[in-house]
Amino acid sequence: MRAAILLVGTLLAGCERRDPVPPPTGGAEAPATAEAPLRFVGGERCGGCHPSERDRWRGSHHDLAMQEANDATVLGDFEGARLEHFGVTTEFRRSDEGFQVRTEGPEGEPGVFEVVYTFGVDPLQQYLVRLAGGRLQALPFAWDTRPADRGGQRWFHLHPDEAIPASDELHWTGLNQNWNHMCAECHSTGVRKRYRLEEDRYETTWSDIDVSCEACHGRGSRHVSWAEAGGQSGDDGLEVKLANDAAWILDPGAAIARRSPPRESASELETCALCHSRRGALGDGYVHGQPLLDSHRLALLEPRLYQPDGQILEEVYVHGSFLQSRMYAAGVSCTDCHDPHSLTLAEAPDAPCARCHRPE
pTM for this structure? Predict the structure, then answer.
């Protein structure tokens, strides 16, 4: 039970963006060529030429994965609401500066912490505060964003049945709730943790605060140069190719369609798997287009991570389960069912299934 609580706590947890932030320039990512190093350009630059994709992305869970805390983004009740948890009283309130939480801090002493970022949006929203050493920490309380008639619109503790003192490894001020280390890679774009061992501090940077275009398509500077030059021929400069051009052919008399041509690349699957899998990072920085196993260690089908039959157990970590499926073996890829920009199903609920399976 303790292991399961640790896992859920760390996966739900929450970098410090310092102003001004030096833009990532390749560094650990290594330029593809000396003449044209790849750089992040930011999602706004991408949206100027790709308005349809930009409009579908806006308001999606990727767009809202992390936001600056303000009246438009904070969904929780900060009008003096209180929460009691094993003798610790937490108060959520407004100030002239923004949003504050008064609760137990480092060393078990009470303190007042300014909320600087929201973290997630549905079915819950967490909040990030700054601590020493360039750390952003996820508070242990979440706001249930569901409607009240579904049990939502309330504060709750992520460990409702257990006291978590400051000495506990699960306390919100510790490593397991540190956003830089645990969650930055999948809630922002172009993240570099930049942990300074000698000083025990982070100098984390990112290119976009949320999960934006280049989180999936890779660094866009060369693609922008190609487009500005007319974009008529040659390599379009994208760091990773994600086009899914497969056709699903339902032969006469067949119950299930076949893919044509067969899948030859894992780029799309591994791009999604970077964040939709049980995995751990082996270093600071994923390089788009390279095999995921070069930079991450995928978890095995352990009982505490998966259902007994290997199906997905929690949240959105589906990759390990999908690799076992007949759909994967048949060549199905993520965008055969999902719109990668809005994150909704590509068609009405049953329609994606009927593309390959006869409804009868």
Answer: 0.85
